Each structure stands twice: as C-alpha cells, then as structure tokens.
C-alpha cells in the first residue's frame, strides 16, 4: 500500500510537526527547569530539525510499506545523522551549542546519544505508521485554496524567522550552552 503526499501536504506536515516539537520541548523545559524556555535556534514557535527529520523520513520511508524494524533502524540512523550535523553546523556558525548530551552515557561528542537515537527510532515508527497517514488524511480534507493560503502564510513567517535568526539567533539561559 502506497501513501501519496502532495507538496502542500508535506509543507503543512513540516509546519505541524515543527510546532508540535516546539510544544514538546517546552513541556520538557517546564518539567526540568520549572519554567517555559523557547528552545531552538529560531525565535518562533517551531523546531525545524524535527520537521526536517520527519519529512526526510516520510520521503524515504513513507511512500512504501516497510517492516517496523527497518523503519526503526533507518529512523535512528537518519535522525542521528541530522542531529549530529545540525549540532556541528550551528556550533561552527555561532560558536554555541543548542544541546549537549555529555551528561548521558553512550553519546558521540555530546551531539547525539544512544538515548536520543532510540527515541528517534520510536518516533520514526509512530510517524511512518500512524502520524503521517493521519495528518495526510486530515490535511486532504482542507480545501486546496486554504491549503495554499496556509502554506504561503506560515512559510512566509517561517522564512522571516529564519532570516532574523541567522542575524540574531535565539540564545540564552536554558537555550544554549
């Protein structure tokens, strides 16, 4: 069975997943630090590393049927590489770290950890088998003109945030190390 994801569906999924990840990280910081911290490089309400990883997984794994173990392993590898490379690039560009796993056992230069990649494997399975097909079905219920409007509006906001953040990244206590 093959799932077809249109370009607009992919863009809207990217935005939704990036926003859900921002909420998730916010909940974690409230739990750990007792207060909300706007995590991530951008100032807006999204964490595009999650959205990008999800879309890459959907494009590679979401178009055809795969076994759970294949999706799990591929999700671990793909997301681990994305997380490592993103951490490296951000640190080289801005001389700051947005995450550091040195406190965990089994980490690689503090950029990725066994724990994080196992979580990516689990999340990848949830994404490919449940979340992406569900979002696809819901997004396809939205009229095409409204989908276009959503894409244009939020992509404009997102691109503006990227440009602003390249000049003035989101840094500070609880955000960067």
Provide the succession of SSEs.
HHHEEHH
Binned, the helix content reads 55-70%
End-to-end separation: 45 Å
Q: Beta-sheet strand percentage? A: under 5%
Structural class: mainly alpha
- In quaternary terms, these chains amount to single chain
Net shape: globular
Q: What is the mean pLDDT?
A: 93
What's the helix count? 5
Total domain count:
1
Low-confidence stretches: none
Rg is 17 Å
Q: How many strands, what sense, and barrel or not for the largest sheet?
A: 2 strands, antiparallel
Tell me the total number of β-strands.
Answer: 2
Strand order of the largest sheet: 1-2
Topology:
Elements: H1 7-33, H2 48-61, H3 68-94, E1 107-108, E2 112-113, H4 114-139, H5 144-167
Antiparallel strand pairs: 1-2
Helix pairs in contact: 1-2, 1-4, 1-5, 2-3, 2-4, 3-4
List keywords for this structure.
177 residues, mainly alpha, two-stranded antiparallel ribbon, 5 helices, 2 strands, 67% helix
Task: Give a summary of the structure in a few sentences.
By secondary structure, the chain is mainly α. 67% of the residues lie in helices and 2% in strands. The longest helix has 27 residues, at 7-33.
